[in-house]
Queue: 2 jobs
Job 1
Amino acid sequence: MAEIVRLGTKAVAGAPRHVAIIMDGNGRWATMRGRPRLFGHHAGAKRVREIVEACPDLGVKYLTIFAFSTENWKRTQVEVAGLMSLFRRYITREARALFEEGVRVRFIGDRLRLDRKLQALMDELETLTGVNDRVHLTIALNYGGRDEVARATKRLAQDVAAGRLNPADVDEETLPRYLDTCVLPDPDLVIRTSGEARISNFLLWQSAYAEYEFIDTLWPDFTKEIFATLVARFGTRDRRYGGAKP
Ligand code: IPE
Ligand code: IPE
Ligand code: MG
C-alpha cells in the first residue's frame, strides 16, 4: 500500500467534517436516455469512487451515502433484485481499491432483511477496511431514519427492562448511543441531487443541525468539481445552532 495512504485527511479550514449524500436521480438519468432504470443505477455506482477519493483533499473525513432506503422495497421486483445484485458486485469489485485508498467502510441500516450473501460481503468489507482511517465511508443500505430510531428505542427499552438503564437518566445523549451511527459525528452538510427538496427518511435524528444543499444535477452526472463547489459553499454558512450574535 502506498505511503500516502497513511497521511490522513488534511485539516481544511471551514470544511464539513461529515458530508452525507442522498444520491438521487439514477432512474430519471436512464429514462432520459431511453434506457432501463438499472442502467442509471450502474452509472450512479460508478460515480462513488471519484467522490470518495476527493474527500481527503477537501478536508472531508466522513462521507455517508444513501444507497437504498427502507421504502425502496416498494419498487418492482426487477429493480430491487437488480439493485441487490449491483450492491453485491460493487462490494466485490471495489473492496481492494477502497482498502488501498485507506477508506474505512461501514454500513448502516437494517441488514437482517438483506440476503445472506450480501450481508456476508458487507461484514467482510467492514472487517477488511477496519484498520483504515483516511476516509470513513458509511453506506446506508436498507436504511430508514424512522426504522433506525425504532430499532434503537427497542434496544434502549430492553436495557431499561433488564435494569441496565434508569429511565431518569435518559437524555439527548442516550438515544444516539443506540443508533446505527453511534460511532460517527453528526453530518455537517447533507447534499441531495436530482432537484427533490426532501430528505426521504435519511439521518433524521443526526441531521438536526446539518446544512442542506439541494441541487438539480442527477446523481450519475455528479462530479468531484460539483462536490468541491458545495463543500466550499459550506464554508460560507453561518451556523448558529439556535444562538444569536451579540
Ligand atoms: C436513487 O435514484 C437511487 C435509489 C433510490 C436506489 P432513483 O432510483 O430514486 O432515481 P429517480 O429518483 O427515480 O430518478
Ligand atoms: C431516497 O431517494 C433514497 C435513496 C437515494 C437511496 P428516493 O428516490 O427513494 O426518495 P423519494 O421516493 O423520491 O422520496
Ligand atoms: Mg429517486
Job 2
Amino acid sequence: MQVERLRDWAELASDWYWEQDENLRFTFFSDRADGQPAVPFNVSMGKTRFEIGLLFESAAHATQHKADLEARREFRNVALSKVHLDGRQQTISVSGRPIFGDNGCFLGYRGVARDISYENRIIEKLVDQERLLSEIIDASANPIVVKDQHYRFMLMNDAACKFLKRPREALVGKTDLDIFPEEAARRFRETDDEVLRHGGPVEYEGYYPVPEGPHPWMFVRKSAFMRHNGDKGIFVAMTDLTARRQTETALLLSERRFRDIAEAAGEYVWETDPRGRFTYVSPRVENVLGYRPEEMVGKSYFRFLPNGEIQHVRHWMAENESPDGAFRDLEHRFIYKSGEVRCLRANGVTVRDDHGVLTGRRGTTSDITERKKAETRIAFLANRDPLTELANRSFFQDRLSQAISTAVRHRESLAVMFLDLDRFKIINDSLGHHVGDLLLKEVAKRLLECVRKIDTVARLGGDEFIVLAEGLARDADAQNIAIKILGAVAHPIPVLDYELHTTCSIGAALFPRDGETVEALMKHADLAMYAAKERGRGSFRFFDPEMNRRASKRQHLESALRMALAREEFVLHYQPQVDIRSSGVVGIEALVRWNHPEEGLVPPGEFIGVAEETGLIRPLGEWVLRTACEQNKRWQEAGFAPVKMAVNVSAGQFMDPRLFGESLLSILADTGLDPRFLELEMTESLLLQNGEDNLAALNEFAGWGLRIAVDDFGTGYSSLAYLKQLPVDSLKIDLSFVKDIRSSKDDVAIVQAIIAMAHSLSLRVLAEGVETQVQLDTLGRMGCDEYQGYLLSKPVPAERFAELFLCDALKSAPHSVV
Ligand code: C2E
Ligand code: MG
Ligand code: MG
C-alpha cells in the first residue's frame, strides 16, 4: 500500500526520480524520466552525469556541488544543462540526498530532477524584457516614471532623475508626497487615482514645482498597467512644454499687445478667409464703421465697397502687394452702417499655413476721412495764400508756366497783370492790421469776380496781387479786364464800421509781345505797375520797353549812388524860412543835392526815390542830418542868431523809430546842437506809419525840445483828429496849393481851412513854394505864419546862405553872442 501510494505520486508528479550507486552511476529512473531528452533510459543507465552530458549551469553551482558530494551531503536545486545535438539546451534542476547502508557505508545518491528549461527561458525573457524596457525608458529624453499601486516610484529613467533633480536611490520607493509640495502632490495623486480607477490613459498639462529653478510646464500621460503579480502599476510619461508654453504666452501677449495698440490707435483688427470673407473683426469696428462684428463676419470685404471701389482695390493690390503678401496703406472708400461712404486705410498681411497654402488675410484698418480732408486742405494751402486763399507765388508761377505752354500750342496770347493797392499801407497803419486783412480779403473776392474761371488770381504778399488771364484774342481783352478790376476795387469797401475807399494801380505784360518766360512776364508786369503808380492812383499801363530802360537806368543809379556816398559827392543847399509879418528869417531848410562829377547838381527828386527803395536812404539821411546840425552849430558859433534847421526825414529812415532816435541823439551829442534848433520834416504818411511805436518815439523827441513839422501837408490823408495826438509844431502847406492860390477857388478854400485848423490846434503854418508877391500877400491875408520860396531865395550853398541872410540876422539879433 505504502509502495503503491508512493508510485502513484511519483508518476503523477512532473518531477522524476533517480538513484546513483556509490560511483555516481545512474541505477534508477522513475517512469516520468522516460521521454526526458536529458536522460534517455537507453543511454543513461549505468552512466555518470558527465557521461550523459549534464553540465553545470554556473561555476558557482559546480564548486558548491562538488563540495557537497565530497562531504556526502544533500544538495538542492543544482541547475544542470545539456545541449542537444539539435542545439537546443535543456536545463534541469536536481536535488539529491546521499544513501547510507546500515553500517553507515555510502551507497549512492537518490533524488529528484525537474526540467526547468521553460521556466528559465521565461525568466530569461523577463530579465531581457526588463533590461530592454529600462533601456528604452532611459533612451527617452522625456521623463518616465513607473509607480506601483501604492503610488511608490518603482522605476524611472535618467531624464526623470534629472527633471526631479534627485538621484535614482533617493526616488525609488518614494511617492509624490515625499518630493513635491503638498498641494502639487495631491494634484498628482488625484490623477494617479483616476488612472487606477479607470485604467485608461489620462492626459493633462500642469506645472511641476521642482526643488529649484522655475517650474516647468509638462504634458503628462499616465496609464495603468497590470503587473505580473496582478497588482496595478502606473506608467507616467512626461513632455516638457515649458519652451512651447513660453512661446505661446509670448505670442498671446504680443498678439494682445498688437491688438491693444491697434485699437488704441482707433483701428480695428480683422481677418478674412482666402476668399475675402471676414472670419474675425474686433469689437472696435463698431466705433469705426458702425457694424457689430457679427454683422460682418461671413460676409465678403467687397460687399462693403461702393461702386467702382472693387476695381480700385484689386488694381491697387496687384500693383502694391509685396511678394510675401503684405500690403501697406491701402486707401479705399467703404460703406458705413449709416450708409455714409468714408475713407479707410488698411494694412495687412497674407496668412499661410505651414505648407504655404493661403488661409486668408489679416490686418488693421482705420478711418482716415478726416486726415484725408486735412491732407487735401494742406495740399491746397501749400499752394495758397493763407489770408485770402488765392494762389500763392509759387503756385502762380506753375500756372503761368503751364499757361505759356498752352498759349504756344494754341497760338494764343495771355496777360500777366500786377496790381498794387494805393494807400493800403496808410489804412493798415492807421486802422490796424485786422482792418487791413479784411480789406485784402474783400479785394481778393472782387478780383475773382472780375476774371473768368480759367484765370488765376494770386496774392504775392502785402497788397500786391497778380492776375493771369489766359486765352486772349486781342490786347484789348487784357485792358478790359484791367478796367473792370479798377472799377471793382474803387467801389467803396465796407469793413467793420468803416467804409474804405481805395484804388489800385495795374501794370500788364502780354505774352508773347512783352516776354516769353515766367520771369520776364512777371518782371515786366511789375515795371508796368510802377509806371502806372507814377502816373497817378487808379491807373493802368501796359508794359513798354522804355520801362525796362528806365529800370536798368535805375539799377545803374543805385550803384552810382553807393559810389557817391563813399566819395562824399552830396552837398546840402539851404533855403530860408521867413516870418510873413516880421520878414525875419526864422528857420532854414536843408535840401540835399548830388554833385555829380559829370552831370553837375542832381536834384533830390531824381535819386531820393531810389535811395528809399534800396535802403541807401539811411546812410544818406544820417549824413544830411549830421551835416545840417554841424552847419547850424557852426553858424551859431560864428555869432549868427540861432534859428531852427529843418531836415527832411523819409519813411525809410524812420522805419525803426528807436534806431533813428539813437542816431539822432549821437548826432546831437557829437555836434553839440541844442535840440530846440532842429526840426524834423515828416510827411503825413510817414507820421501815420507804425502807429504806437511812432507816437512814442515822436513824443520822446519832442521831450528833448526837438520840433516836428508836417511836410507837404494836404497831399496825404491824415485826419486832424489823428494829427492832434502827435507832438507836431507846424504844418507846411504843399506847394501845389500855393501855386494856384490866385486862380483856384478850391485851393484857396483848402489853404484857408488848413490855416484855420492848424491855428485851432496851436500849430504854426508855413507855405512852401511861394514864388510871387501876390501869393505872399494872399497867404499873409489868410493868416499864414511863415513862408519859403523862390520869391525870396532858391536853396543855396552854405556860404551863399550866410552871405545873404545871416549877416542881417547877426545885425538884427540883440541876444546873439559875437
Ligand atoms: P520838400 O521838402 O517839400 O522841399 C521843398 C522843395 O521845393 C525843394 O525841392 C525846393 O527846392 C523846392 N522849392 C522851394 N521853393 C520853391 C518855389 O518857390 N517854387 C518851386 N517850384 N519849388 C520850390 P528840392 O530841393 O528839389 O527837393 C525836393 C524834395 O526832395 C523835398 O521836398 C524833399 O521831400 C526831398 N528832399 C530834399 N532834400 C532831402 C533830404 O535831405 N532828405 C530827404 N529825405 N528828402 C529830401
Ligand atoms: Mg521839406
Ligand atoms: Mg514840401
